[in-house]
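note to self: dont lose this again. the chain is below, predicted strucutre after it. 70 aa total, dont forget to put it in the shared folder this time
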Amino acid sequence: MSKLINVSDDIYEQLNKLKDNESFSTTIRKLLLQRSNKEEILKRFGKGEIDEKRMKELKKGWKKWTEKYA
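---
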């Protein structure tokens, strides 16, 4: 089943660059999988006990890294 979603022009352009010859669904699926894998790794960091402040710092750092290298 497919659904219609609206995204802003800048998000559309970013997704379009990421997708290469894939569908938007496949590209979004991959991005969501990367996100869930990242969150699982963060949960396990430090024996699975990360306080909210540290989690925010890690997410901010991950975002900066992603923007620069991904």
